[in-house]
Amino acid sequence: MDGKNDNFFLIRHGETYANRLNYIQGTLNDELTSLTKRGMLEAANYQKIFDNNQIDYVYTSPLKRAVKTSEIICATTNIKLRVDERLAEISYGKWNGADISKLKQQYSMYFDVETNDVRPHSILINQGETFEHARTRIWSFLLDVSHRYPQKSILIITHGWIIKNIISLCLENIDGTAFKNPNNLSISKIQLNPALKQQRICYYNRPFIGTMVL
């Protein structure tokens, strides 16, 4: 790829109480999905990201766990926080807020053995959002931002399923269930060049070290 591309930095939100309890969150947006004290403290470490990196825009999912993470990260900057509905986590329908271990006992055929993730055909049971629909909306977001802000660096705070499916879409639509979810507050980087219809994965699921250059 040449230099005329956008850099996207993808951060998964901080730890929530639902994460601790091993519950599926999906589009659940209640107290269970609030950040824990640990999640808030670790998110504050990302305030250093602006010291050694040029970040032009920051986007977040509308769900409270991502918004709170974004507000903490951007607390020391003047960068406007932009909310985009397309960055919301996939909805697992009736499974939003459910205990994963109990679901796996009852519906083991709908979980991937290697990645511990929900499989696409689980929609037959949980009546949630289709994987195809969710993947279409997140890719449309990336293309829209790339066309609107060419050759810029974009910070995105979103969710595990969303991030790993962005990565899988960059790999010519390899099934997103091939990847394990990124860790809370890990960072991944991709580059897009919509004019050349090119995309590149720079790294996935890295821990952030305060002074690192992205």
UniProtKB/TrEMBL annotation:
**A GO BP entry:** regulation of pentose-phosphate shunt
Coiled-coil segments on the chain, per record: none
What EC class is this?
Answer: hydrolase
Ordered alphabetically, the record's keywords are:
Hydrolase
Q: Which organism is it from?
A: Limosilactobacillus reuteri (Lactobacillus reuteri)
Which GO cellular component does the record give, naming just one? cytosol
Q: What is this protein called?
A: Alpha-ribazole-5'-phosphate phosphatase
Q: Which Gene Ontology terms cover its molecular function?
A: alpha-ribazole phosphatase activity; fructose-2,6-bisphosphate 2-phosphatase activity
Pfam families per UniProt: His_Phos_1
Residues where substrate binds: 12-19, 65, 89-92
Is Hydrolase one of the keywords UniProt gives this record? yes
Q: Does the keyword Nucleotide-binding apply?
A: no
| Residues at the active site | 13 (tele-phosphohistidine intermediate), 89 (proton donor/acceptor)
SMART domains, sorted:
PGAM (SM00855)
* Domain of life assignment: Bacteria
Q: What EC number(s) is this enzyme filed under?
A: 3.1.3.73
- State the InterPro entries in the record: His_Pase_superF_clade-1, His_PPase_superfam, Phosphoglycerate_Mutase
Q: Recite the lineage of the species.
A: Bacteria, Bacillati, Bacillota, Bacilli, Lactobacillales
